[in-house]
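Private note to self, pasted from the team thread so I don't lose it. Backbone tokens:
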């Protein structure tokens, strides 16, 4: 094992591998910053350039870009409320309010360090867990995945401080939007109104661009001024304060990383769910849950650590069984084919040094990305003091280009604009955009795994399978926890 680790590190520390990793990280930061793209697009665009390269150099460029998109996406999400990728939506919930308070540099520092620690955790877990993950994955089936999606819906109660009814309405709207298109089981068109464009459904990335980015530009135009007014003292918190926050909340980093690793190892679940679940977990375990949504640094740390650890988790089924842990891992499998690498037992036994090469790539790429984030955060934060007359045209142009780039359809630009208006109205009338996003993320997952569970295990699948029953009990406890906490607070006069 030690020999394979050193061999993997030696393969990476060559001139070619380090140059291509640096190029990959730089490209990933750029693609991550642009809304609607993310790691899948970055890896897909770089894949043709891997032909003819040494395996270590090719993997360094692909994985380096993928790792860098996590923080790149967080930069735009924190500073402009424009998530670069769907999995970074949850970082906007508190990251952008921190920016509005003049704490953008602190939020970026916290995000960079949380991403680094989460990525390191994912790399270490990847190293030690491959022999054991097969048994865990084989014990989970469609009923368990359905319960995980159902657990995600219970987070609605967290975001509905003002009105639970409004939260349910927003989530219901998100579910309706998720169901637009072809039924995954029967193939029946739903809510398409005869439109061929809507047969494919509403792309989640495009909708998110509208809900958060474009709606925020509309709000900024109506309000006038800039995101952060110049009279707000931006020097009262620094990027190093954010770094210290991460170590101060080390338990949150650890629990969020474990969650990200677990979700990443489950094929077909998706990193978007991990970010939302991590945010919900952070709220439920916090001593001051009322601060979330107003600029709590924990709301930045949790999803960022989860997203970073998710990458190591996604590699577990990809390398161990040849089953992609997410969309980006399908690109990696394509690269394996061109390199003549066979995932599974052969990779782990005969090419173990390549596995360790990928582990080292994750570590070093995270180190490069974190260094970039820490030393440039202050300069990026100053962009938020630019007047709206400068920011709005630039951000809108980037948003519309990003929406078009997702699938190359002009209709997606129109969809992004429509969702921008919807997002603005939701915020104006105190309906949670977060609840709507949760409904959209989990809608298709709920439907797909419910159909499969009913077909395979019957109507009582949630009580006939022990693991599913335990998860159902956990879901009920999670759903009841906010109400129990509120009751205890009222009974004890505000003290838990």
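Design output:
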């Amino acid at each position: 094992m030690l020999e394979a680790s050193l061999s993997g590190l030696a393969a990476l520390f060559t001139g070619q591998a380090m140059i291509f990793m640096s190029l990959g990280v730089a490209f990933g930061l750029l693609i991550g910053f642009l809304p609607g793209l993310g790691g899948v697009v970055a890896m897909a665009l770089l894949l043709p350039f891997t032909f003819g390269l040494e395996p270590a150099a090719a993997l360094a460029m692909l994985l380096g870009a993928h790792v860098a998109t996590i923080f790149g996406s967080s930069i735009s999400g924190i500073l402009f409320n424009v998530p670069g990728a769907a999995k970074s939506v949850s970082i906007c919930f508190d990251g952008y309010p921190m920016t509005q308070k003049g704490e953008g540099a602190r939020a970026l520092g916290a995000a960079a360090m949380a991403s680094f620690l989460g990525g390191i955790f994912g790399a270490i877990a990847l190293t030690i867990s491959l022999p054991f993950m097969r048994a865990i994955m084989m014990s989970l089936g469609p009923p368990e995945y359905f319960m995980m999606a159902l657990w995600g819906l219970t987070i609605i109660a967290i975001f509905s401080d003002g009105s639970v009814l409004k939260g349910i309405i927003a989530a219901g709207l998100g579910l309706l939007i998720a169901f637009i298109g072809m039924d995954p089981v029967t193939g029946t068109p739903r809510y398409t109104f005869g439109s061929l464009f809507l047969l494919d459904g509403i792309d989640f990335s495009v909708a998110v661009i509208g809900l958060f980015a474009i709606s925020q530009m509309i709000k900024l135009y109506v309000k006038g001024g800039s995101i952060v007014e110049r009279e707000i003292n931006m020097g009262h918190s620094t990027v190093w304060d954010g770094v210290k926050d991460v170590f101060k909340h080390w338990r949150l980093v650890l629990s969020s990383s474990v969650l990200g690793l677990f979700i990443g190892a489950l094929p077909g679940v998706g990193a978007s769910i991990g970010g939302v679940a991590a945010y919900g977990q952070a709220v439920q375990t916090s001593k001051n849950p009322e601060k979330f949504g107003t600029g709590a640094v924990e709301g930045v740390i949790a999803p960022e650590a989860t997203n970073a650890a998710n990458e190591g988790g996604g590699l577990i089924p990809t390398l161990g069984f040849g089953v992609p842990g997410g969309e980006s891992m399908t690109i990696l499998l394509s690269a394996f084919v061109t390199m003549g690498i066979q995932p599974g037992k052969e990779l782990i036994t005969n090419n173990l040094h390549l596995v360790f090469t990928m582990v080292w790539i994750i570590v070093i790429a995270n180190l490069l990305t974190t260094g970039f984030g820490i030393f440039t955060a202050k300069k990026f934060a100053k962009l938020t003091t630019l007047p709206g007359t400068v920011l709005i045209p630039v951000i809108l142009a980037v948003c519309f280009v990003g929406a078009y780039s997702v699938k190359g359809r002009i209709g997606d630009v129109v969809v992004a604009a429509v969702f921008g208006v919807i997002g603005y109205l939701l915020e104006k009338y105190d309906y949670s955009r977060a609840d709507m996003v949760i409904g959209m993320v989990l809608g298709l997952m709920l439907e797909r795994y419910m159909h499969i569970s009913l077909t395979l295990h019957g109507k009582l699948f949630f009580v006939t399978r022990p693991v599913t029953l335990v998860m159902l009990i956990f879901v009920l406890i999670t759903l009841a926890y906010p109400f129990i906490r509120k009751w205890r607070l009222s009974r004890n006069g505000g003290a838990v």
